[in-house]
Amino acid sequence: MSPRTAIYCRISDDREGRGLGVARQEEDCRRLAENLGWTVSQVYADNDISAFSGKERPDYKLMIDDIKSNRIDALICWHTDRLHRNVRELLDFLDVVNGRDKINPNNLFSIQTVKAGQIDLATSTGRAMAITFGAWAEQSSAHAAEKIRRKVEELVEAGEVHNGGPRPFGYTRIYQGEGPRRKIIRDEICEPEAEIIRECVKRALDGESLRSICKDLNARGITTSMGNPWTVQAMRGMLRSGRIAGLKEFHRKVVGPAKWPAIIEIEEHQQLRALLDRKGRKTGGDDANVRKYFLTGFVHCTCTPKKPKKMRVSKAHGKAKYSCQPRAEGGCGGRTILLAELEKFVEKWIVARANDPKVLAGIAQRQNNSGTKSKALIEAIEKGEKRLDFLQAQLANDDEDEEDLVEVVAAVRKVRVRLREDRNKLARITSATPMIGIDVKTLKDDWKGLGLDRQRAITSLYIKRILIHPTSIRGRFDPDRIEIEPR
């Protein structure tokens, strides 16, 4: 009587996506089944899935379930390495077959291969042979992975595009061949997407949060290269990456110029990286503490003159107001000022300052100085990074004396501290450019449409803090109690 026979086929890499590899395996397995006099009742096929990577193989899982449930009595595969290229998984498979055979001692499970012959799991010799085949298959896969990693490193060193990953936003990919695994030849700039990137870069450097930028792009129907809505994480990754500046990265570190064209200048990349690294996770996340009012953080109560206390937003009788902190937290717990009236007052003050030629000249001078300082800081950062690479190479040198290594470690720490300070300075400078693109003559009318992040950035440009003094006037807004400390 013919055993209930199944065929298992698998191929790791199907670049054309046509399934020809598994089809050829099935054809050879069916020929072997015919020679054995077995009737094939089930075919399991995992196409374009590696058995070494650890990824789930759907049909392999179905096959294991069918063996456990005693739905099949025999298995044919092209070679043992089509079944397993991982010894751990092979041992689990042997446990499944042994468990099945204990329940059916008169109908032991049979395994035949086209290239490696019969695998007799009922004997110790057969099991040893199966484990040996599995070990060599695992070694072969590991060796192949080493070669692939070395090839990736060569491509990184040469600044070339390497296969893998989604199409980067801002670029059009040129391929060789067809199918999902075709070879990438080069990346070219996709101008419509590149314009979006330049816009996002300018907005981020102007002080707008990533959350605000993402919200705007999603409202305009602009998606990522994968067709997904923009998230803060995706935006941060794109803006921080060296790719859009024509730089090659490896393990999140810029390693040199790339072969693809740049969308933004390297100086802009340095500014973005410093700005985003300084802000860390506080780049506009969707948490519950996102500010809702442009003056939050600027308003202080003078109940403690030497160290004015920040006032918080609260609501009473349907009206928002800034209130001093409770006495238990060091405040007076009683002083308040209506939020809407204070915003109108400060908005009017900012518009007047923005239209004052003397103030504008001062801002222009300050921004020119910022430009000079940013160039100097960028040069210092680049020199520091080169110095750090040199010192780290010395640490990796086994020939160095122990005393010398102690000095090198101290030098590494010193350079890292200086780099961190320079990046923080650069971030502060780059976030002080919120008036770029603003028409001061129409600022009064445009203010509401600027958005919260741009409003706060402009406020920060003109105002250091707002002090709220006591008042004897009750029942109406008293502008005389407001003291604005200009920046």
How is this structure best described in words?
With 487 residues, the chain is α/β, with parallel strands linked by helices. It has helices at 20-36, 58-68, 80-83, 87-103, 124-158, 191-205, 210-219, 232-240, 266-279, 339-354, 357-395, 402-430, 443-446, 452-462; strands at 4-11, 39-47, 74-77, 110-113, 117-119, 171-176, 183-189, 247-250, 253-257, 299-301, 309-310, 312-316, 319-323, 336-338, 463-468, 482-486. Strands 2-1-3-4-5 form a 5-stranded mixed β-sheet, sandwiched between helices. A hairpin with a 3-residue loop joins strand 4 and strand 5. Helix 4 (87-103) packs antiparallel against helix 5 (124-158). The longest helix is centred in the last third of the chain and has 39 residues, at 357-395. It is elongated, with a radius of gyration of 33 Å. The N and C termini lie far apart (93 Å).
List keywords for this structure.
487 residues; Hect, E3 ligase catalytic domain fold; 3 domains; Rossmann fold; single chain; alpha/beta
Low-confidence stretches: 14-19, 155-159, 281-290
The tally of helices reads 14
Number of strands: 16
Strand order in the largest sheet: 2-1-3-4-5
Number of domains: 3
Q: How is the biggest beta sheet arranged?
A: 5 strands, mixed
**SSE string, helices as H and strands as E:** EHEHEHHEEHEEHHHEEHEEEEEHHHHHEE
State the distance separating the first and last CA atoms.
Answer: 93 Å
Helix percentage range: 40-55%
Q: What fraction of the residues are assigned to beta strands by DSSP?
A: 15-25%
Integer average pLDDT: 78
Radius of gyration based on Cα positions: 33 Å
From the spread of the alpha carbons, the general shape counts as: elongated
Structural class: alpha/beta
Domain Resolvase/invertase-type recombinase catalytic: 4-159
InterPro entries: DNA_bind_recomb_sf (IPR038109), DNA_bind_recombinase_dom (IPR011109), Resolv_N (IPR006119), Resolvase-like_N_sf (IPR036162), SSR_resolvase (IPR050639)
Coiled coil: 374-401
Keywords: Coiled coil
